[in-house]
Design brief:
This protein is α/β, with parallel strands linked by helices.
């Protein structure tokens, strides 16, 4: 049964379904369609979500109230929803079996038909037997994707030597995890993250044993964490337990279907696609990534047709989204990588995650582009390789020359010569001149940097006093040139270190961040995150605390307005028992960014402890000033 008030869509669906060998009945309104379904016998209903008289959700709700149509597959057609979360919520609200997102193609319709009709014919009860096997180096993300695809509910047991982990799945999403590794316990994790102190952890464990309540519940009762913060902590804990298994190259697994879990399971829904991206980015070494991608290098990549896979929440960065957008079916994996020459490793990680999660599929033949793809490619022009090479050569040459050489003038030139030379160079390298030439974002950024350098050179040399000072510096003390390759290398090391820091691989993170600092010792951001990695490697060791403090103080002197520096100083000072310095640092972080939730939380905890001991705190002083 097709119910839609749009005559064109009714006609399209009737033709497409008839071509599939199905008997089709149509209705141009909700009331008529509902009456037909209740009085007839149908295997599937396709209903538009927005119609006058009776809308799709109301029709679906009415069908679910009748015994005859309670289990009838109902597909709603809409352009309203564009994410898995929205679709899943709508399924719960309306009782809909699935959604067909407009505009859709015949292939999308047929894929959904095959899925629903095959399931209804062949699957009546979920399988009850367990599935087990051996883990190879790439199998865990494949297993996560398979469980998501099957919308499986049950318990996944993972084991490697003496390490055991148990992961609970509900509808294909990991919701909870346990392990036998002490450092992965909730309290230990919170201590390691400096969220609570060792003393707080021990007190909460003792109270947990006495009251027979979970440690998380006790921490909330003690005022150390809010319910929201506890939810976030549990999410991080489950995520870390799963991510750490990505570095396994062997082991075994067993998945057992189940419908009920233990009462003390706190459900934290995690996106399998996001876990796969984090695991690949944080735990797969380059050689493992290369091995996985080799079979796909000459394959054409296209975005999945199924909304179930295509719209998964992966947490892609802006560049990641751009990489995903290139997967239209007309470019091979290698061609896509060539479009991101300066971020090739990140592109490899994103493409591997997209393939493993099913958001992208690979084919040996190119796909005919739809209208959206044709429009995107039409706006792109093939990148002129000679132009690209010239820009890169000029970039490296000019940015290592002094201002006179960059503009192509002698050191004895007059103001008119400088102006004329700049206008000529600016005309050649103005960013607007390169618009629409199909250059990559990385090359366009280099053009902007080149133009900025030339403009700055002109601003200095066209000012007599600044020019004389600059010339004196050149004669008496050579100007330090910019080593472009070193700048790129430092930024690459920094980004790698930050990525490892996010997944709490602190020792590995330190190595990369130290490299970045060595190459750019006056970059406050590099210093701040290097200090934090040093501290987090072993936050209980005084040597780590003092070394981190030394680096953070240096960073603060270079940039006193960096919120993260003061926040980390607060944690380090607290470990060193310098409570007043710690509180002051948290206050400075809040003054720089009033929405710094981590600093606000720490100040609230400090204030709570002071109130318990009869002292005032930041919030008390703040409220006191407001009353005045």
């Amino acid at each position: 049964m097709v119910i839609d008030d749009d005559r064109g869509i009714r006609s399209f669906l009737e033709r497409a379904l008839s071509a599939k060998g199905l008997e089709v009945d149509v209705a141009d309104g909700g009331a008529v369609g509902l009456q037909k379904i209740l009085n007839g016998t149908y295997d599937l209903a396709l209903i538009d979500i927005n119609m006058p008289e009776i809308a799709g959700p109301a029709i679906c709700s009415a069908l679910r109230k009748h015994e005859k149509t309670r289990d009838l597959p109902v597909v709603m057609m809409t352009a309203m929803f564009h994410s898995v979360e929205q679709i899943e919520q709508a399924k719960k609200d309306y009782g809909t079996t699935d959604f067909l997102l407009k505009p859709f193609k015949v292939e999308d319709l047929y894929w959904l038909l095959d899925k629903l009709l095959i399931q209804s014919d062949e699957v009546t009860e979920p399988e009850s037997h367990s599935v087990e096997g051996q883990l190879t180096e790439d199998y865990l993300p494949i297993l996560l994707n398979q469980l998501y695809s099957d919308q499986a509910t049950g318990i996944l047991n993972l084991q490697r030597e003496e390490t055991k982990k148990v992961v609970y799945f509900k509808g294909g999403y990991p919701i909870f995890a346990r392990s036998n590794i002490l450092s992965e316990c909730l309290g230990q994790m919170l201590v390691k993250e400096s969220v609570i102190s060792r003393e707080d952890c021990d007190r909460s464990l003792e109270r947990s044993k006495v009251t027979k309540r979970l440690q998380g519940t006790v921490l909330i009762e003690m005022g150390l964490l809010s319910p929201e913060e506890m939810h976030d902590a549990l999410s991080r804990q489950v995520t870390e337990k799963l991510l750490s298994t990505f570095k396994w190259s062997d082991g075994s697994y067993e998945f057992s279907p189940a419908t009920k879990f233990k009462k003390n399971v706190t459900e934290i829904e995690l996106s399998p696609a996001a876990l796969i991206l984090q695991g690949v980015s944080g735990y797969w070494p380059p050689e493992r990534l290369d091995r996985f991608l080799v079979p796909y290098r000459q394959e054409f990549l296209s975005q999945a047709k199924s909304p179930l896979f295509r719209f998964q929440e992966m947490g892609l960065s802006q560049r990641g989204e751009a990489i995903f957008e290139e997967c239209l079916g007309d470019l091979t994996l290698e061609k896509i990588l060539q479009r991101f020459p300066l971020s090739r490793r990140e592109a490899q990680q994103v493409l591997a995650a997209l393939l493993l999660s099913g958001m992208v599929s690979a084919s040996s033949s190119a796909t005919v582009l739809d209208h959206r793809g044709q429009e995107k490619r039409r706006k792109e022009q093939p990148q002129d390789e000679e132009l690209r090479k010239k820009i890169l050569d000029d970039y490296q040459r000019i940015l290592q020359e002094d201002y006179f050489a960059a503009l192509g003038v002698s050191r004895q030139c007059d103001e008119h010569e400088i102006k004329q030379a700049y206008y000529q160079m600016a005309k050649e390298y103005h960013p607007d001149r390169f618009l629409g030439l199909g250059l990559s974002q990385d090359i366009e950024q280099k053009v902007k940097e080149l133009f900025q350098y030339l403009t700055h050179a002109y601003s200095v040399l066209s000012d007599k006093e600044a020019s004389a000072s600059y010339l004196d510096e050149l004669v008496n003390g050579p100007k330090q040139s910019i080593n472009v390759s070193q700048v790129i290398e430092a930024e690459t090391a920094y980004q790698r270190g930050r990525a490892l820091l996010k997944v709490r691989r602190y020792k590995d993170s330190v190595e990369y961040l130290k490299q970045a600092v060595e190459m750019s010792p006056n970059e406050p951001e590099y210093l701040t995150y290097c200090a934090w990695a040093v501290y987090k490697t072993d936050p209980t060791q005084v040597d780590s605390q003092k070394r981190a403090l030394e680096i953070l103080v240096t960073s603060r002197e270079l940039n006193p307005r960096m919120e993260q520096t003061h926040l980390y100083l607060g944690h380090v000072y607290r470990s060193l028992k310098k409570d007043r310095h710690s509180e002051k640092s948290f206050e400075l972080a809040v003054q720089i960014n009033p929405r710094c939730t981590e600093a606000l939380r720490e100040l609230r905890l400090i204030n709570l402890r002071k109130e318990q001991s009869g002292e005032g705190g930041f919030f008390k002083r703040f409220l006191g000033r407001n009353k005045d």
